Automatic annotation (TrEMBL):
It comes from Thiospirillum jenense. Gene3D superfamilies: NAD(P)-binding Rossmann-like Domain (3.40.50.720). This is CoB--CoM heterodisulfide reductase iron-sulfur subunit A family protein. GO terms for molecular function: iron-sulfur cluster binding; metal ion binding; oxidoreductase activity. PANTHER family: COB--COM HETERODISULFIDE REDUCTASE IRON-SULFUR SUBUNIT A (PTHR43498:SF1), FERREDOXIN:COB-COM HETERODISULFIDE REDUCTASE SUBUNIT A (PTHR43498). Keywords: Iron, Iron-sulfur, Metal-binding, Oxidoreductase. SUPFAM superfamilies: Nucleotide-binding domain. InterPro entries: HdrA-like (IPR039650). Pfam families: FAD_oxidored.
Amino acid sequence: MTEIVATNETILVVGGGISGMTAALEAAETGKQVVLVEKRPYLGGRTTQLYKYFPKLCFPTCGLEINQRRARMNPNLTLLTLAEVTRIDGTPGNYQATVRLHPRYVNENCTACGDCATVVNTEFADEFNYGLSQRKGAYLPYRMAQPQRYVIDPRIIGTPEAEQAKAACQYNAIDLDMTPQEITFPCGAIVWATGWQPYDAAKIQPYGYDRIANVVTSVEFERMADPNGPFGGQLVRPSDGKPAKKVAFIQCAGSRDRNHLLHCSRICCMASLKQATYVADAYQDAADIRIFYIDIRAIDRFEDFYNKVSAIPQVKFIKSKPASVTVDKDGNPIVNGVDTEGYHRYAEPFDLVVLAVGMEPAVPKDAFPVPIVVNRAGFIEAAPENGGVFAAGGASDALDVNRAVQHATGAALRAVQVVNRVRGVGV
């Protein structure tokens, strides 16, 4: 049975993405006891699924590795993965949190050797690659996963393969008798950092995401470009593996739309600019890249990046919100619409269409285990009624990684102030 040593000076951080990690580490490094709860089997959230950051086009693995090392070295931080907060009772400085722990079926003896995976043949859609590839029923979520420990998919529990995986383990790390647990512990303040999720592109019916194989989302395209991704970093069409040299990026796919998300998701323009460089780098002069946009929101330091991408000869900008995406007999998606600067109709085929899908909160408005004030988009408001519960990063608004980290640091400071008042420490 998992036990948590906690008091009303403990800070609970819900969500282990880049914002949750930041808030937890900043609070723990002030000397506070912190419990970090993450529903996935590893830390890092959606940032782990990026190929590159904008505007520097550097790799997220560097910053993630630093935070992972900080987390491993800090004795004030308790990490619970495959865990969800189901209930929170009490008041600031005197909360009781209830957490449900789902079984990993692999204990701390695991060395990530992979012997269990070699004897398991059953495969499932790989969540890390947004279903673009398959993973085994015994798997390491991704190569830098923390904890660096395998997971047994519950769908093979009770099958001969699960027993084979257990027999293959030399370290007695596989425990097929693990069961769900529920634990309750005190805490004084809570940082809610459950992040965001990509808008469901299938709801944007005219763009044919659920019907046309060569229409993908921006988050899927990020995995497609990654050398560790489903296609080994080769930018190819999912339907037939042919090179995706002529690519259309459609902005505001689900954002700024009264039928979908009313808000601007902020990162979409920059994500498409970044991804345009992937195609240009991969195919050089053979690349043909079109960015269909309402307007480009590249403010402050991002304007330089916009100018840099605009100067790439293979990249063309078309001011238009496409009306639809259809498909020809060869599986080529055709983008249909009107150029709003020249009012010229177009129906142009592409190898691949990438939808820059919007951001929405990962937790629906009615699913919070504690009363909390949210805006019409479902993001958490900074309201006095929230008491000692503070939003961080993507739970508070549509934010890029840099702004999410800054916001999470502020949330950690507010949580520290609450628990300091429990002790009567001046702030």
